Amino acid sequence: MARMINVSDNKTFALSNDFFSYVFCVTEEGILQHVYYGPPLKNPLEVEIHHLRTQREAASVFQGGQYFSLSDTPQEFPSFGTSDYRFPAVHGRNHDGNTVFSLLYKSYKVKDVKPLLKKLPASRGGDCETLIVTLSDPLHLLDVELYYTIYKHHGVLTRSAKFKNRGEQELQLQHAFSSSIDLPPAEYEVLHLHGTWAREFNEERIDVPKGRFVVDSARGTSSAAHNPFMAIMHKGTTEDLGHVYASTLMYSGNFALSVEKGEFEDVRMLAGINPFNFHWRLKPGKTFCTPEALHVFTDKGLGRMSHIWHNFIRKKITPERFANVPRPTYLNTWEAAYFDIDQDKVMDLAHQAKSVGVDMLVLDDGWFEGRRDDTSSLGDWRADRERFADGIPALAAKVKAEGLKFGIWFEPEMVNPKSQLFQDHPDWILHVPGRTPSLGRNQLTLDLSREEVVDYLFEQIDIILSCGDIDYVKWDMNRNMTEVGSAGLPKNRQREVSHRYMLGLYSLLKRLTCKHPNILFENCASGGNRFDLGMLNYMPQGWISDMSDPIGRLQIINGASYLYPTDTMAAYIGPSPNHQNGRVTSLQTRFLAGFFCAARGLSLNEADVVEHKDELFKYIEMARHSAEDMIGGRFHRLINNGNEVCWQLTTADEKTVYLLYFHILSAPNLPFRRAYMMGLDPKSEYLMVEDGTSYNGDALMSSGLALPYVTTGHVKDNIRYMDKGDFSSYLFIFKKEG
Ligand code: GLA
Prior knowledge:
- The protein has about 750 residues and is of the alpha+beta class.
- The protein folds into three domains: about 5-45 and about 65-315, Distorted Sandwich (Beta-galactosidase, Chain A, domain 5); about 320-630, Aldolase class I (TIM Barrel), CATH 3.20.20; about 635-735, Golgi alpha-mannosidase II (Immunoglobulin-like).
- The strands form seven sheets. Strands 6, 7, 8, 9, 11, 12, 14, 15, 19 and 20 form a ten-stranded antiparallel sheet that branches. Strands 21-22-23-26-27-28-29-30 form an eight-stranded parallel barrel.
- It starts with a strand and ends with a strand.
- About 55% of the residues are buried.
- Bound molecules: alpha-D-galactopyranose (GLA).
- Alpha-D-galactopyranose binds near residues 364 and 476.
- The site of alpha-D-galactopyranose has 11 residues, from loops.
């Protein structure tokens, strides 16, 4: 069988599958030079090394080399100080006190498996090969192992780096990126996802400027401000045309993704831990592993890029146990009752949930000792006996006796100053000596870099999960970190705390999810403040935003879908007027905005459920019928023009095609809009369920489907209309014939 990784005698390395080829070589000076990343080549080892050596005025020349300047040499893992002036992948302080490292080729290995990353989540192996290239600084005895994994069935390349101090004196790392890729000069654009609380995942697309453009986080979470995602693409790339190079990280803390256009228009992409405020002491004999960086290349536009990500995330990242499992519908108590919750109210809501066909009751915030509002009690994970007299296990059993599943909310990483836990262990929080810790939502962050804190949390949560009646956990995290310091570490390791926190968090998640493999975990951080592949590795779904208004949520889902499959997203029907933005919308639009998300439900109070019982019953029934279809489907962004959004989802078996259309603000005399559907079988017919009309697949893609019309005037029989007015929505369902 042909191998995906091939190495020539003169040390050219080629990774190649049906999706891409990636080639690099070793120069005569020992530098690992990048050669090619793009469409798959027939003979990747023979690809021409385009980079020319020439005398450039005012360029420094690499030690001893002739006409060889690192400042314009594409490299695999650049360092600083020996003629490259661009931002390096590695930077640190050696035992001579300076910051000059020079990493030269030493050796390589190829494996048929994917090695695990120590203490960090990583995508799973299987049908893959891994190339490990070791670079070494002979002077300072720093080795760097570069890991490259290529998969037979995926267009994803994973990379990470492992640093090893082979010397007898300490080294200090300041930049320890996971990967660096140097692309050739071209006109590129960059797409990234930015936002804030309740407005996550906004897309911004700009030309790659000269200089450096960075998205990063120094908040301790990957954050809503910039999701860890960046796509560099040829200018003018569309959903189905154009070269795209996209990157993300399997990391939930301080990250940086950057693109730099250098003086010779070469373009460098870096991915890894944010070097700002990072510093790692590497003692003799010790190693440091970076998180995994993931890259996708396609020449078929952003739509294809998303499909590659989506398939990979489902197959190699989210917990296998849930990968093909349709998600239960749920009623979450948060927007139904907020803190005004007790066991009777839970049972009332459970009855209402049951009456409209919902599968699970989720008890959100407010159930633990003394928790009446957000000023107290985080950390004290025992039921509040005044309001939950019988305790959580008994309540869970009672809810289950009603024929529902039971889920519960935790915010494990936090503590309120007003809590027993804080009184007992004031030094268990992130803090620095002599400064009053800044509060966020009245709470402090526990110091998960300390083992005893992780152990305490494991025990407390495990007690509740072990009662046997918990089907689901919503894992929340509601503030960014400040005064990041740890009483558990010496002064000269304080800048390691953010990363050590992540290692502690991952170990906690691993222990809990391994011990309770059948509990469905949902990731939340005030919505999407930590929605990333690191968390998805443990939790198959996430509450992507606290924005429960459907119109507010459209852009959030659209933006998130560039990287994340809708299988990983949760959505529910919230109250109207909406509590975040006051918008009034129909129940239909509230339901349909989240229709493609695998986890669907409601967060409505008893009166609202009673008032809309029949309609809710209908929607929950639709959710149940389509639950399987929302796992593994192919999602297409068809229209997103500011006032209209149109998405298509083709089920994994290709037999059903859903088309959703949202029209935001109504206006008179609008154009007749069409949806040019994508990825259908051009030779098949598709039956529209609504009226039994049959359409040819090729026509639906090339001539388009007439979308319903928004009218303020005359209504004609031969035209399909949206509901009158603003915020209307429409769902088409097609069945493939034959
Ligand atoms: C965060 C979450 C909400 C809810 C509240 C509870 O804001 O995003 O969904 O769980 O916390 O306090």
